[in-house]
Amino acid sequence: MVTASSSNEPADSVAESSLPNHDQAALAEPAIDHDRIRADQVREVAYFIPMMLAASAFSSAIFTWVAWNTADRATLLIWLTAMWALVARALHSWLRNRGNAKTRVSARMTRKAVTNATIQGMTWAALPALFFVGAPTTQQIVILGVMMALIFGGAMALIRIPPAALAYAGTMLTSVIAVLFVEGGTAYNFLAVLCAGYGAIGFLGVRHHSRSAHTHSIIQQEVEHQREVIMLLLKDFEKGKGDWLWETDPKGRLTSISGGFAKTTGVKPHHLIGRRLADLHLGDACVEWQKLNALVAKRQAIKDVLLPVHLQDRQCWWTLTALPRLDEAQKFIGYRGVGRDVTVAREAELALKEAKETAERANTAKSKFLAVLSHELRSPLNAVIGFSDIIAEQSFGRISVPKYVEYATEIRDSSRHLLAIIDDLLDIARIESGAVEINDEEFSAEKLFDGVRRLLMPLAEKRNVRLSRAKSDVETLLHADPRLVRQILINLVTNAVKFTPADGEVALGTTLAADGSAVMWVRDTGIGIPPEFRDRVFEPFTQIDGSLSRNFEGVGLGLSIALHLARAHGGELVITDAPERGTIVHFTLPSWRVVKTERLVA
């Protein structure tokens, strides 16, 4: 008989059933644990063992009493002794292991169960083989009744271990069919065929039940694994992020809050159980709570709603996310969701916003101050430049003292330089305040280059720098603001001349890129710009030589203004150079600002 004995299992067949915390393997797809499935099979079969043993003992005793006067008594006693010995052995094994249910059973134990079932079946198979052929009809009927009852009863009891059920029932049924054919005759042959048919049906039933039970066991393992994964995720969820879970009833009263709430907020959850979420708001006029109440009224999902909360005389900020809960009848029964205390992040966000607004106000005030101050300075400077120019040029007569002319010239040049700086300050203030207006019109890039060259030729000659324009047989027509593009080029060329030593060269020209954009470039043979300074030179008031005793005049606004004006046109400035070998600045305008190109007639 099949028993639940498994006390002598090898140690390597037993493993821990629980998953350690934070074990990544626990989150993987579960492998089928056949040892657990076999343990479930043995446990269910063990439940029927006492009933099967009682049936075997009772049936063997009844047959012995019926056949005592017709069968060979010695053979009958030997068979009865063997049967009761098997029953006693199986009962002893069952009693010994009754309170020692295993959670895992090796394949060796199921093979042992099949062996025990086969031995039990062969013992019962000996009954018709020894006492059916030639026996009185009454004895034959008793044998057939006992055998069929035990066959189907045992098959049902052992069905969770299909090989054991088939071995037990198949051995007995084969013996019954064999003796019926041996007995011969139409009736016996019909009974043999009938038993064979029932045996085939029983085989299919055992097979189907075995597959269903096996699938059920696998599904149960998957469900347990998913439950375990969910518990691990919930623990990590509350431990790692500081979030908490919450539920409400249909009236909006909190019915459950997880333990993560106390760790995050310092408030015990039971203080809020039974209270409505709406009781935590700071006033009816709160827009955030009005949004939440509108969602709840429509039974809609709540997604990352930011709420100011009044909790124990202090203001907090929460984000709530939840879904409506429905029962089997699709009736609303409340919300279940996640809460998070974002007070620290919200306060930091508000502080950052306030700091940004303060900085913007300060920047606006600075720009207004520069605009007003520059305007107030321009008027007297124009007068200084005008009168000093009259003296320097001796417009009203020759001055007998040459030093006066020299000083007047220095005053004029210095005033012009100061006026240029003021103009730059006005430009940068206008740019930062967003007051730059672009008045687009069509113009020739090459003619604009010629005008810039003529304007800056005196500066180049003064510094002994050659200023040239690259020859081109194509005229490029642009649609942009010629005044601002001219200012960009003036700033670039002025900067190039300023940083080019004597006998150096500055060249300017234009080309068309493959994508149709116009590229205006200014190349010099100056000191170059180290790679670490290429981005910084576009920042306001930045110069490569930042010392008080620097060799180059200016306040560092030219390139910054040029970059802002270029980007206002949808363009860009890019510097390519190598230190000590010069610099090339590319001023690119997008293709939609290129009207057309015309080839010049020689």
Explain what the structure shows:
The chain is of the alpha+beta class and 602 residues long. It folds into 4 domains: 28-228, no CATH class; 241-341, Beta-Lactamase; 349-432, Helix Hairpins (Orthogonal Bundle), CATH 1.10.287.130; 441-599, 2-Layer Sandwich (Heat Shock Protein 90), CATH 3.30.565.10. The chain is built from 13 helices and 13 strands. The chain has a 5-stranded antiparallel β-sheet with strand order 2-1-5-4-3, sandwiched between helices. The protein has a 5-stranded mixed β-sheet with strand order 7-9-10-12-11. Helix 4 runs antiparallel to helix 5 (162-183), helix 10 packs parallel to helix 13 (558-568) and helix 12 packs antiparallel against helix 13. The longest helix has 55 residues, at 186-240. It starts with 33 loop residues before the first helix and ends with a strand. Residues 1-28 and 546-552 have low confidence and may be disordered.
SSE blueprint and pairings:
Elements: H1 34-66, H2 73-97, H3 107-131, H4 137-157, H5 162-183, H6 186-240, E1 243-248, E2 254-257, H7 260-265, H8 287-297, E3 302-311, E4 314-326, E5 332-341, H9 343-393, H10 402-432, E6 441-444, H11 445-462, E7 466-469, E8 474-480, H12 482-498, E9 505-512, E10 518-524, H13 558-568, E11 572-577, E12 583-589, E13 594-599
Parallel strand pairs: 7-9
Antiparallel strand pairs: 1-2, 1-5, 3-4, 4-5, 6-8, 8-13, 9-10, 10-12, 11-12
Helix pairs in contact: 1-2, 1-4, 2-3, 3-4, 3-5, 4-5, 5-6, 9-10, 10-13, 11-12, 12-13
